[in-house]
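This follows on from our talk about sequence and fold. Go ahead and set the record down below:
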Amino acid sequence: QAQFVESGGGLVQAGGSLRLSCVASGMAFSVKDFGWYRQAPGKQREFVADIRRFSYAYYADSAKGRFTISRDNAKNTVYLQMTNLTPEDTAIYYCNYRGATPDDYWGQGTQVTVSS
């Protein structure tokens, strides 16, 4: 079964940066597509960015120009570099397969809190 372990969250001031990591296991990592998602308090989980084979990347409008998704197939790890953070980015961040649904398995995520 696929498992995802997210890390790298924390408390940061507005304008700051964080780099999230996600170690994935239980699948043939290099041939899979992955995404980052987030869930803010009182809101539904939403798409942030995804990365496909050969590192093609796609971003939500809210992430364009500020976030960069990347992958290291040798380490079975997906990254999300986040810059110029705002309080609106405060959420729990999750990684999963691209196109994951609420019914899929989700890890515990990593909390990102941006203070103003």
Q: What stands out?
A: Strands lie at 3-7, 10-13, 18-25, 34-39, 46-51, 57-59, 67-72, 77-82, 91-97, 110-115. Residues 49 and 59 are 4 Å apart (CA to CA). The radius of gyration is 13 Å.
